[in-house]
Backbone:
DNA sequence: GTTCCGCATGAATCGATAG
DNA sequence: ACTATCGATTCATGCGGAA
C-alpha cells in the first residue's frame, strides 16, 4: 500500500489559510477501506469496473459473481461514510444472452438489506455514446447514477448546481416581471412583494434527475470512464469545500482532479500500479495549472 | 364487456384493398385478455396505472401489492403475444419514505420467472416534467420503457424510426459528400459510386435507447398519460402495417389512435366506462380527419 | 396570416396537520 | 406510531386571444 499525497493552498477559503489534499493510494480497495475511520467521508463517487468489462485491468468479474464481489466493498463504504454523506454509484448492466443482466437490480436489493437507503436514480444521458449497429438493439446512450444514503437527513446543496432556464424563460421572464411589478405597485405591503422578489432577476432553475453530458473525448491513451463534469456535479451538489471525497476505483484520477479543483480533499484508491501512477501525474498537472 | 369497433380503408396498402380496425373494449383487462387467442398480437404497448396514482380513476394499487396485482396480467399478455412480438411497458417507481420503491425491479425479476426476456430498458426523458422543489430531491424527468420479448428472434424494423442527424452530422456530412463527389468523379465505375450513394443525401441516423419527448399538454379535458409520439415510435419500430397492437390499459385511447393512423389494427381494453367512451370518440375523430 | 403573451395544467413530493 | 388528506413548491408546454 503506497500513498501519494498532492497538496495545495486553498486560496478561496474565507477562513484562515487551509490546505487541500489529494491522497492517491495504490492498493486493493477492500484492504485500504479498512484502514479508514468510521463516518469520515462526506461523499463517495465511483464508477467501478463493470462486469466483464476492462478484463485486462481488473481481472474481469463475471456478471453472475458481480454482486457477491461488490457487497463486501459496499459494506465498508457504508462504515466510512458520514451519516449525512452520500454514495453515488455509476453503473450499467451489460447485455448477456440477448437480455439485460439483472445484477444491478440484485445489487440494489442487497445493499438495501445492508441498511443503505436507495434514495434516487439519476440518469446520465450520454449524448455521444459508443457507435455501432445491431439488428435487435439500438446504441446504449445512458447509464445509471444510483444515489444511496445512510439516513434520510443527508446534506444537499441544490443551489450550487442550478442551470440556465429553458428558452421559455428567456423570452418570457421579462414580461412576467413587468406584470409582477405592476402587481407590486398596486398592492404594496400586501405580501405580494416577497413573491415577486423570488422571480425577478431569476435566470436559473434547478436541474432534474436527468444529467445530460457528453463522454470525454478519448484523445488520451486511456479510457476516461466518465467526464470530469460528472463527479464535479455531484461534488458541488453533496459537499462543501474542505469536505472529503472518496473514490475507491479511481482509475486515471478523474474524481480526485474534480475534487482538487473544487477545494475538496479526496481519497482515491486504485489497485493497478499503472493507473495509480497516471492518476498522480494527472493531479500533479492540475496543481501546475492553478 | 362491450366492444366498439372503428374501421377505415387502408388506402396505402399495396395489396388489395384492406381494412384497418380498432377494437375498443370496455371491461377488466384480465377477463378480456382470456378471450384473446394465443400468439395473436404483434405488439403490446401500455402504461398501466402507477402504484397509488390516478386514484380517482383507477383503484389505486398500493406499492407493496403492485407486483402481485400485475403478474396475472403479464402472464396473459405473454400468452397472447406472438413469439416474434414485443411488449413495451411504461412505468416508474414512486418515492415512498424518502426512497425509490423497489416494485419495478421486483416486477422485472418475477416476469423473468414467467419466461419473459428483459431485452432492453429505454429511457423516456420528459423535458416538461412535473414542477416542484424539495430539500432532498430534484424533479423526476424520466420514466422507464421496459422491453420484454418471448424469444430472442423478435421483429424490429429499425429503418422506420431513423431520425434527422444532429448539427454535428450536418456540418460533417457536407464535407464528407464533397470529398466523395470528387472521388466519384475521378474514379467513375470503380465501385466507389455505390459507397457514395450510401452517404450522399443521407440525413437520417438510427436513434439510441433514450427517447426525448415532452408530455402531452392538456387542453383536452382528460390527461393523456403519454404523448402519441411514444406509442407511434414503438409501433413503427416493432410492427408492419396490418399487424395487431394491443393496449390493455387504453385510457383515453392514445395507443389505438397511433395504431390507427399508422394502418395497424388495434385492440384497446379499458375498465372505466368514461375513458372507454372517450377513447371511442377520440378514435372516431381520427377517421374524420383522414 | 404571423408573432407575441397570458394562462392553465400536470403519473410529483414533502411536511404539517388531523383522525 | 401509523395512515389519510391538504397546502406549498415549481417550470415546460400548447392553446387562445391580442397586437
Residues:
Amino acid at each position: 500500500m503506497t500513498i501519494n499525497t498532492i497538496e495545495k493552498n486553498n486560496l478561496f477559503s474565507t477562513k484562515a489559510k487551509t490546505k487541500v489534499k489529494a491522497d492517491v493510494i495504490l492498493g486493493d480497495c477492500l484492504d485500504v477501506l479498512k484502514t479508514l475511520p468510521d463516518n469520515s467521508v462526506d461523499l463517495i463517487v465511483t464508477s467501478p469496473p463493470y462486469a466483464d468489462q476492462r478484463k485486462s485491468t481488473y481481472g474481469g468479474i463475471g456478471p453472475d459473481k458481480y454482486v457477491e464481489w461488490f457487497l463486501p466493498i459496499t459494506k465498508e463504504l457504508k462504515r466510512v461514510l458520514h451519516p449525512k454523506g452520500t454514495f453515488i454509484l455509476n453503473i450499467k448492466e451489460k447485455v448477456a444472452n440477448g437480455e439485460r443482466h439483472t445484477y444491478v437490480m440484485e445489487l440494489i436489493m442487497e445493499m438495501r438489506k445492508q441498511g443503505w437507503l436507495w434514495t434516487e436514480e439519476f440518469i446520465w444521458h450520454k449524448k455521444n455514446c459508443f457507435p455501432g449497429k445491431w439488428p435487435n438493439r439500438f446504441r446504449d446512450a445512458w447509464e445509471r447514477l444510483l444515489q444511496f444514503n445512510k439516513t434520510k437527513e443527508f446534506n444537499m446543496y441544490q443551489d450550487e448546481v442550478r442551470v440556465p432556464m429553458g428558452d421559455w424563460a428567456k423570452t418570457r421572464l421579462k414580461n412576467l416581471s413587468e406584470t409582477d411589478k405592476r402587481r407590486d405597485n398596486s398592492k404594496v405591503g400586501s405580501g405580494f412583494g416577497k413573491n415577486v422578489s423570488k422571480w425577478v432577476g431569476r435566470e436559473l432553475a434547478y436541474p432534474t434527475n436527468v444529467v445530460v453530458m457528453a463522454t470525454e473525448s478519448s484523445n488520451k491513451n486511456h479510457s476516461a470512464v466518465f467526464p470530469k463534469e460528472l463527479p464535479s456535479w455531484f461534488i458541488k451538489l453533496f459537499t462543501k469545500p474542505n469536505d472529503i471525497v472518496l473514490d475507491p476505483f479511481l482509475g486515471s484520477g478523474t474524481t480526485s482532479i474534480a475534487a482538487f479543483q473544487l477545494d475538496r480533499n479526496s481519497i482515491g484508491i486504485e489497485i493497478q500500479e499503472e493507473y495509480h501512477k497516471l492518476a498522480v501525474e494527472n493531479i500533479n498537472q492540475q496543481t501546475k495549472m492553478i
Chain B touches chain A at residues 98-100, 102, 105, 108-109, 112, 117-121, 123, 125, 129, 133, 135-142, 152, 154, 156, 158, 206-210 (CB under 8 Å).
